[in-house]
Amino acid sequence: MASSQSTSPTIEYDAFLFDLDGTLLDTADDLGAALNTVLRSQQLDTVSREVYRAAASNGAAALLEVGFKDKWGEQPQAQLVKQLIDAYAANIAKHTTCFAGIEPLLIELERKNIKWGIMTNKPGFLTAPLVAAIPALKNACVVISGDTLAEAKPSPLPLLHCAKLMGVTPNRCLYIGDALRDIQAGKAAGMHTATALWGYVPNLTEVLSWQADFNWQSPIEGFNHI
Ligand SMILES: O=C(O)COP(=O)(O)O
To answer: What is the SS3 assignment for 53?
Structure first.
């Protein structure tokens, strides 16, 4: 797999912004446990890690869709989304940890006084307890959720809001994420973008079609831009 492809010379950024699920945090096992709780309650087969992991960056409805498969269209969807969210909220950080390499990168950013923040599409009532449960995330300068503003990713608005709160110009920010909407939002905000290949990304051909500025194999590649 290609590593750290660059379309421009190495740049040192004024701020790093991160997506949460599949970028900073490996949340898939807690999300998958909540999905399997819902499936069991409906007397349906549970799904494997490989299956729920692929949907873990895409929100509650996308997770339920991979669990219910062709039956999803026949279900009371709002009720099941609520059931999944309740099950997830009850055990939000049981298995969740930072991905390997995230903690050293955050420590280095803080050591060099480079601002870093979080912009996730997770709703705020889930983001807040999750971030609070992970000590490595305690020094985030901003934490913006999918419902903080009227628009979520792929809209650039939440990222532009982060830049404003941090007092940095968007083109001096790098946004790191593992989904197409992350790269779209970052580009639309005028930021540089990096794909987190350690996250819940699809196949490489699809990832390369997103045309992020960088495709990182590991968060350690962020050291090249500090
Ligand atoms: O829960 C979601 O909707 C996805 O969250 P993310 O933006 O941190 O990947």
So the answer is: helix
Ordered DSSP codes for 173-204: EEEEESSHHHHHHHHHTT-EEEEETTSS---H
Q: Which two tokens stand for residue 95?
A: 């298995």
Q: Which residues contact 54 (CB under 8 A, 6 or more apart)?
A: 66, 200, 202
Residue 5 Cα to ligand 1 middle (Å): 25
Q: Tell me: pLDDT of 3 over 70.
A: no
Interface confidence (ipTM) of the complex: 0.94
Q: Are 216 and 196 in contact, with CB atoms under 8 Å apart? A: yes
Look up 182 and say whether it is catalytic: no
In the chain, where does DSSP find H-type helix?
28-41, 49-55, 60-68, 77-90, 102-111, 124-133, 157-166, 180-188, 204-209
SS3 117: strand
Whether 158 lines ligand 1, by a CB cut-off of 6 Å, is: no
Residue 218 neighbours by CB under 8 Å, 6+ apart: 100, 101, 198
Instruction: Tell me the pTM.
Output: 0.94
